[in-house]
Amino acid sequence: MKFEMSNKPLSTFSLASLTDIVMLLLVFFLLTSQFVIQSGVKVKLPGAKNNEQVTTSRVVVTITENKKIYIGKDEVPLAALGSKFGGLFKKNGDENLIIRADKNTDINSVIQVIDAAKGAGISKFTIETEKELH
To answer: How far, in Å, CA of 63 to CA of 70, rounded?
Structure first.
């Protein structure tokens, strides 16, 4: 019995491996788009079981454990905070101020930041927390 051996080029292309790669890329981008990287100063946020997702604001105030206040990455003294808020909110048009306070920060520091913001005409505040898994 004689078998035929042919070296003809394939007339069809198998798309199975290409679809696998596209599917893996799709899953990768969907998963990594869920991770939001917070730029700026690192603080340990307090936990809350019932926190809500809020729309992001361009103006984020960070209060560290040693009572340093940052707007974005820039350190701002408490005395200059009100004038800095006035300029930022007129430029950006945001109405919501996000406060990221370290969980070991005393409440007085947060109240001082809120007071300076109210003096600048800001009426909406959000205190950022981390979701507790318990």
So the answer is: 6
Tens of pLDDT, residues 59-98: 788 898 888 899 888 888 888 888 888 777 665 555 678 8
Sheet holding 124-127, edge to edge: 74-75, 69-71, 60-63, 96-101, 124-127
Residue labelled with tokens 């930022």: 88
Beta strands in the chain (DSSP E): 47-48, 60-63, 69-71, 74-75, 96-101, 124-127, 130-131
The C-alpha angle 46, 94, 88, rounded to 5 degrees, equals: 90
One-letter amino acid of 92: N
Q: How confident is the model at residue 23 (pLDDT cuts 50, 70, 90)?
A: very high
Task: For domain 47-131, give the fold.
Answer: Nucleotidyltransferase; domain 5 (3.30.420)
C-alpha 11/C-alpha 17 separation (Å) is 17
Distances (CA, A) of 51 to 4, 48, 72, 76, 127: 71, 6, 22, 28, 10
* CA 41 – CA 81 distance, rounded (Å): 17
